[in-house]
Amino acid sequence: MPPPPSLSKVLASAVEDANTKVMRMSSDRIELHSTGMHTVPLDEIGGLLGGETTHVVGVGMTLARDPLLRYLMVMTPEGRRRIVLPLVGEAALDDPAMMESVLEEMGNILGSTLANALATSLGRDLRTGTPELIADLAGAILSSVVGSLPDVADPVPLLDVSFRADGEAANASMFLFFEASLAEKLCLVRGQ
Amino acid sequence: MPEVLIVDDALFMRKLIRDALEPLGFVVVGEAANGREALERFSELAPDLVTLDIVMPEMDGLEALKQIRMQDEEAKVIMITAVDQRDAMLTAMNLGVADFVVKPFEPERIVSAVEKALGRVG
Prior knowledge:
The complex is a heterodimer of chains A (192) and B (122).
Chain A lengths: L6 H19 L4 E11 L4 H4 L6 E10 L4 E7 L1 H12 L7 H27 L9 E6 H11 L7 E10 L2 E11 L1 H9 L4
Antiparallel strand pairs in A: 1-5, 2-3, 2-4, 3-6, 5-6
Helix pairs in contact in A: 1-4, 3-4
Chain B lengths: L2 E5 L3 H11 L5 E6 L2 H11 L3 E5 L7 H11 L5 E5 L4 H9 L4 E4 L4 H11 L5
Helix pairs in contact in B: 1-5, 2-3
């Protein structure tokens, strides 16, 4: 029997699936690719995003409850601008509600494909929550996520993704937070 | 020209659908962000067709579909669904939905669904 796929392969495959959907929605103007996965100690995450006082925007989504599994995608406001522009045009840059709606939809696509990929690996259906928009200092966001998760597993898987929108790159970081009780199952699928 | 009511809680999705339809001559007569608003607009505007998201706050798309069809049994409704909403799709079929469009979709897909529902495809 072949070994289960590694977590990095599962997540990379999810991003490829999400890429198909993003390209479809954007009439091929936006592509999405993963550029690498690694794990990060919880107390170093704030520093990775340019510092705990860096302003970031993003989307969070609960992928599973009991035990809890959440994903969080964060990027800079400039990155969001680069994604929004080809989808809804210049006028939307002055429309905060539209900018938020675009990011929410991107977050929804990523969250649902992650949930599908992880459901297969975890051997259970995952019922996702609705996307939650985030705009705050990196340190505050991460503290809030960790605070809402009892017994969060440490280190945290981090997937670097890159959106390419009309030739411009917008990088984002995707974190996967989960209760420590889930770590063993996810570690089992690491296959490393 | 055919008049369309767009119902989706996501502002961006409403814009995507509008941007796909308007250049081809469809008239977007109104938008709604939940099922309750959808029923109000439907009564006011009597559109030729409704595009209707399933998951929405206050009143979801299935309940809105049911009540729209009760108001007008000839009402043409296209449901916008996510791929994992098979049960909802089955319910919608039984309620007389004209077609489904799975999101995220290419603009051409929503256009072809609308044209087909309105009998504009030869």
